[in-house]
Amino acid sequence: MSERSYTQVGTRPVRHDGLDKVTGRANYGADFSLPGMLHGALVRSPYAHARILSIDTSAAASMPGVKAVVTGKDIAETSAKLMMGEGAIDLHDVGDNLLAHGKVLYHGHPVAAVAATSLDLAREAASRIKVEYERLAPVESVDQAIAPGAPILDDKLVTAGQPSSAPKGPTNIAGRMELRRGDLDRGFADADLIVEREFRTAATHQGYIEPHACVARHGQDGQVVVWCSTQGPFAVRDACAGILGIDASRIKVIPSEIGGGFGGKISVYLEPVAIVLSRKSGRPVKMVMTREEVFRATGPTSATKILMKLGAKRDGTLVAASASLWYEAGAYRGSPSGAGAMCCFACYNIPNFFIEAYDVLVNKPKVAAYRAPGSPMVSFAVESLLDEISRTLGFDPIEIRLKNAVKEGDRAPYGPAYGPIGFRQVLEAAQAHPHWHAELGPNEGRGLACGFWFNAGMNSSATVMLNSDGSAGVITGNPDIGGTRVAQALMVAEELGIPVERVRPTVADTDVAGYTDVTGGSRVCYATGAAVIEAARDVREQLRARAAKIWNVPVEKVGWKDGQAVPQDGAGDQKPLSVVDIAAKLSHTGGPVIGRASVNLPMAGPAFGLHICDLQVDKETGQSKVLRYTAIQDVGKAVHPSFVEGQMQGGAAQGIGWALNEEYIFNRDGVMENPGFLDYRMPVASDLPMIDTVLVEVPNPLHPYGVRGVGEVPIVPPLAAVANAMRDATGIRYTELPLSPPRVLEGLAQSD
Amino acid sequence: MDTIRVQTTINGEAVEFLCEGHETLLTALRDRVGLTGTKEGCATGDCGACSVIMSERLVPSCLVLAPEAEGRTITTIEGIANGSGLHPLQQAFLTHSALQCGVCTPGFIVAGKALLDANPNPTETEVRYWLAGNLCRCTGYDKIIRAVLDAADHMRRSQA
Amino acid sequence: MSAIRYEAPQSVAQAVGLMAADPGASIIAGGTDLLVQFRGGVKRPSAFIDVKRIPELTSITLDASGLRLGAATPAAEICEHAEIRRLWPGLVEAVHLIGSTQIQGRGTVGGNLCNASPAADTTCALIVSRAHCVIAGTRGERTVAVEDFCTGPGKTLLQPGELLVALRLPRPGPRTADAYLRLIPRTEMDIAVAGAGVSLTLDARGTCTDARVAIGAVSPTALLVPAAAEALIGTSVDRAAVARAAEAASAAARPIDDKRGTIAYRRKVVGVLTSRAVTIAVDRVKGR
Amino acid sequence: MAKVHFSSALSQHTGVQEITIDAPRVRDLLDALARRFPGLETQLAGMAVAIDGQIYNDADYQTLQADTELYFVPRLAGG
Fold it and tell me: Per-residue DSSP letters for C69-113?
C-alpha cells in the first residue's frame, strides 16, 4: 500500500446536502405528505406478557372518517427469511412484532392499527378497539428468565448452538455460543494474579432525535411505494416483500433524509402495517411514532450480566481469561451476544480462554443493533479488569496494554489472523498525548479504555455519470447519516481529477440505485466507497477510449495523469485532454458515459479505539462531570476528516451517556417508567467538554485508499474509560452501569 | 368542528391559518402553514428540535397552542437566512461540519440566533448552557459549539 | 373528538367568569407542564383558558413594600430583571433552573406552583422569601402563604373557579440573602431529585437573627423546616450550626423511591444541599 | 487445498480441531465437509468464511490456495 498523495481525499469541503439542512428544507420521514392521505395509529399492549383472547374492532371501524382497521390476521404468519448482514433474519418474528398474532411479548407490543382522515381521529378510534387479554407473569431480567419454573415466552423455542447433549424442553435461552482456545485451567494455574468480577449494564436506546416515520401507498394495480426514514431502503423493500408475500419488483422504497439511526432504523416497525392499511383503504397512509412509542417499542440494546475472570503473570502478561455473557434479547431471539463473545478479548493475545454467550428472551421490546452491537458491554468488563490488574501489579495502563496488544498476524479470538491493524499505533499515540500527562485536581480521576469492532463489508453498488460540461454525478442506495455523500463526491473527484464541488452525490430510491446493503456496520465509506471508486475508474477508462477515438490512436497509447488523458508510447505530440475537453465531445465519440460498479467485499478489517476520560466527582452528592475527553482511533484513511472526527465525538458522547445516566427503568409489571427525553437522560451540551480526536491512519489493504470502518468503534471505549476514571477519583470499582449519582453515593457510603 | 382563525406574522410575512383549539403551534406550522423545517423530536419540550422565536422569546413550539400565535411575530428556521445570503450561524455550521443527520440543526440554529441576539460575545460555557435544551445524538456537540462561537466572532467583527 | 375550545380573556374577571361557566376548562399559562400532561392523556380539559393576555398576570412591579410577580410572567423575564436578581438571587437561581432556555421562554412561576410537583424548583425559594399567593375567584380576592398553597402532588388549595393572579414577596431586610440549590444527575434539563432553599439575615456581628429553610422533592409538597431555621438563628452560622441545620432538613424529609432517586439518597443529599445553600446565603450577605 | 480450523463448538460435530481438504473453491470444500461430517452442514449454514484472514459472508466461489488457512465465523453486520 504505497503511501500515495491525494489532492481531494483528506480535505474538508462543505457537504453538498448541508444547505438544505441548515435552512430547514431537508425532508425527513414525517415531512412528507400526499393528497388524500390518511393517518395511522397503533393499538399497543398494556401488558408486558399476555395471550390475546379477542380483538373487537367494530366500535372503531364504524366511526365516520375511519377508513381501515387491521390486526395480526392481516399480516400472514410467514416462514420466509431475509438475507441480511447478520445472516438470515427470521421474518416470522419481524411480522409478529409488527402486529401480534397470538401473544403480546412486551408492553407496547402492537396488536392493531387504524387509518383515519386525521391523526386525532385515528387515535380516538384506536382507543375504542377492545382487546381481551389473559395476563401472564412477565419475565423482567436474565436471572428471572433462566430461573427454574420461569414463565416461558415461546414454548416452541429451541436453543440454537446448544450441544446435542444439552437438555431439551421449554426455555427462554434462544441461543448459546462458545469460543475456546488453549488450556484454561493450566492458564489460570500459571497466573500470578487473578481478578474476577460480575458486571451489569442497563438497556440503552440509540436515541436518534427523529422518531420512525413513513408514508405508504398501495395502488389498485398492486404497485407499492413507501417513503420512509431508514438506514436500509433495500432492507425495507425486501422485508415488506417477504412479510406481505409481494414481489420485490412491486415495491419501491424512497428513503427520506434520516434523522439518526445508529442501527435502530434497520428493522421495519411501521412500513408493512402502513402498506396493509393503504391496501384496505385505497388511500396513502402516514404513520409517525411518538417519542414514547420509540422508547417502548423499538430496539434498545441488550441489558447484560457478564461474569469475567482474567489471569496475568507478574510481568503483566495475560495468560488466561474466561467470560460468561448473558444478553437480554427482548421479545424475540437475536441479541448481539455472539458479537460480544467475538469482541470480548479481541484486543489482546490471550493464549488460554473460554467464552460462553447466551441470548435470553425477556418481556421487553426486541433489541436492535446499536453501534458496535454487543461490544461496549464486554469492553466495559475487560477494560475494568485490566485497570485493576495494572493497579495491582503497578503497571502504567498503556504499558500493560502494549504488552498484550494484538498486531498483524496474531490470531483473533474468533479464529483467523489479523491483517494490518493499528492497535499498537493507537496505544503509542495515547502515550504521546498531552492529555495522558496532564495534572489532575482534587476529586478528579483519569481513566483509559480500548475498544474493538469488526466493520462490515457486504454488498454495494454505485453509478457515476459524466455530464457534457465535465461535471459528474454519483448515485448510491445508502442513506447518508454521517456525511457519506460528500465522502463519495471526494472519491469521484479524486479519481476523475475534477473539483469536488462539480460532483453531485445522490441517495436514490430502490428503483434507481443498484442493490446495496444497509447503511450500518461502519461500512458505507469502505464498501460503497470502493464501488464508487471502481465506478469512477470505469468512467475514466471510458474517457481514455474516447480520447483514443479523438486522437485516432489505439487506447493503449492513451495514459491518464492528474485528470487528463495524455499521449504515451509514441502517440505523437497530442495536447492532453482534460475531463472537460472529452466531456464536450461525448456525443461525437459514442454517446453518454456511465460508470458502474458493484462489490461484495469481505469485512473491512477491524478498527481499534482508545479513549482517555477525566472525571470530577462530588463525593457528597455522587454527581460527576466529564472535564476532559480524548478519543484516539485507527481510521485507515480519513476521506473527510471532519466527519470522521464527528463519528468519534458522537460515539464518545453516546458511550458517556451509557456510562453515566442512560438506562431503561422498568416497574414490576414490565412497563418502562422513563419513555421520554426528560427521564431517559442523554448527555446535553452543558454535560460535555470539547471531545479531542486523534486520527491514526494505518491503511486497510482491502480498500483502494486504505479506508477502514470508523462509525462504530467510538462507542466502545467510553463505558470503561468513565468507570476507570470514577475508580481513579473515588477509589471504588463500580461494576454496574449507569454510574448515576445515587449509585455512586451508595458505593462511597459503603466504602468509608 | 369549530376551528379558530389565527392571524400572525411568520418570518416577516403576514400569515393566516385555521386550527383547532388544542393544536400546537408546531403542528400548525408544519401541517397548516407547510413549514416543515421545524421538527418534532419528543413533543414534551425536552429536545429543542421544535424551537422557534415567538415575539423575541425562544420557545418550544410543541408546548405552545397554535391560537396563541394570534398577533405575535414568529421566526422559524425558514426565516433565518436573509434573502440572498445565509445567516453567519448557517454558514458556520456548514464550514465546521457541525451537523451529521441534521434533524436537530434547525433547532440549534434558531436557538443559536436567539443566543447571539441576547449575548453577542458568549463564552463556551454560556453557549453550552444556553443550548442545553437542544439535544443532538450524532455530533457530541463539539463542532456545534465551535460553529456558534465562530459565528459570534464573525458577527462581532462585521459589526465592529 | 369534540374540538377543545381556546379562550384568551383580557381581564381577571373575564377569566374567572369563563372558569365558573365551564368547570372542565383548564387555565394555561406557559403550558410547559399542562400540554405535556394533555398530550399524555393525563388531563383532558374541555377548554384552554390562556391567561397571558391579562396585564395583572404578566407584569412585574417592585416598590417599597416588595415585589409583585404576575403568575403568568415567563421565567426568562424574571431572570432578566436586574433588581430581582440583586434582591432575590436565590429566587432567580430557582426560576432559572426550570428546564431549558426554551422552557424558560414559556414556563411561569404561577404555572410551576399550580402544577404542584413535589420537585418544583421555585416553591422552596418562594417559601423562604415569605411569598404570598394572590388568588381571585367568584367571591373576590384572597391571599395565602405560599407554603400552604400546594396540598399534595398535583394538588393545590385553589377552589373550583379560582385563579392564581400573582405572587407577593416582601422586600428583604438589610443583610438578608437567599440561595437555592438542587441535585440533578445531568447539568441541565432534569427534574430535581432533591432541592433546598434558604433565606437568612445576619446582624452586624454576623449572628443569624432570622432564617427560613425549605426543602423540595423529598415530600408530597415542598416543606418549610422550622427546626433547620432554629439551628441557625442565634448562631454565627459556624460549621456546627450548619451541620445541625442540615440534619434537621434530612430529618424533616419524607422522600420516596422513584425513577429519579432513592429514599436514602434523597435524605442524605437534601442535607448536603441545605448546608451548601446556607453557606452561599451567608457569603452573599457578607459579600454585599 | 486448505487447512480448515474448527471452533470448539464445531469440533463437537467433527471430532477434530482441524483438517486439510483438497478443494479448488470454497463450495467444493463445503461439499467435501458435508460428506465427511454429516450434520455439520446445518451448523455451517449462515456462517461467514475467513480465508487467510479475510472474512467473506458469501464465499462459495472464492478460490483456495495451497496454504490457505480457513475458519468459520458467525456472520456480523453491525449498527
Answer: EETT-BHHHHHT-HHHHHH-HHHHHHHHTSS-HHHHTT-BHHHHH
Spatial distance between the Cα atoms of C89 and A387, rounded to a whole number of angstroms? 45
pLDDT at A82: 85
A685 part of contact set with chain B, CB < 8 Å: yes
For the domain D2-74, what is the CATH superfamily, name and number?
Beta-grasp domain (3.10.20.30)
The predicted structure's pLDDT at residue A166 = 75
Pick the CATH number of A139-205+300-405 from 3.30.450.20, 1.10.10.10, 3.20.20.70, 3.30.365.10: 3.30.365.10
Above 90 in pLDDT, residue A79?
no
- Length of chain A in terms of residues written: 752
CA distance C12 to chain A (A): 32
Helix/strand/coil for A732: coil
Q: Starting from the edge strand earliest in sequence, which strands make up the sheet with A472-476, in order?
A: A503-507, A472-476, A458-466, A593-601
**pTM of this prediction exceeds 0.95:** yes
Q: Rounded distance, CA B158 to CA B160, Å?
A: 6
pLDDT tens-digit readout, A199-237:
999 999 999 999 999 999 999 999 999 999 999 999 999
Tell me the pLDDT band of C1, cut-offs 50, 70 and 90: low
Which chain A positions have a beta carbon within 8 Å of B128's beta carbon?
685-686, 688
Question: Which tens digit of pLDDT belongs to each residue from A391-405?
Answer: 999 999 999 999 999
* Average pLDDT of chain A to the nearest whole number: 96
* Interchain pair A521, D77: CB under 8 A: yes
Phi, psi of A288 (to 5 degrees): -130, 130
- Please state which of the four CATH numbers 3.30.110.30, 3.30.43.10, 3.30.70.890, 3.40.190.10 is assigned to the domain occupying C1-51: 3.30.43.10
Contacts of A208 in chain B (CB under 8 A): 101, 103, 137
Contacts of B133 in chain A (CB under 8 A): 684
Write out residues in chain B with pLDDT < 50, as ranges.
none
**C188 and chain B in contact, CB less than 8 A:** yes
ipTM above 0.90, yes or no: yes
Angle at which helices B142-159 and B105-118 pack, to 10 degrees?
40
**Which sign, positive or negative, has the C-alpha torsion A615, A616, A621, A623?**
negative
Fold of B88-159: DNA polymerase; domain 1 (1.10.150)
The pLDDT tens digits of the residues spanning A349-391 come to 999 999 999 999 999 999 999 999 999 999 999 999 999 999 9
Determine how β-strand C163-170 pairs with β-strand C176-183: unpaired
Q: Rounded CA gap, D59 and C10, in Å? A: 76
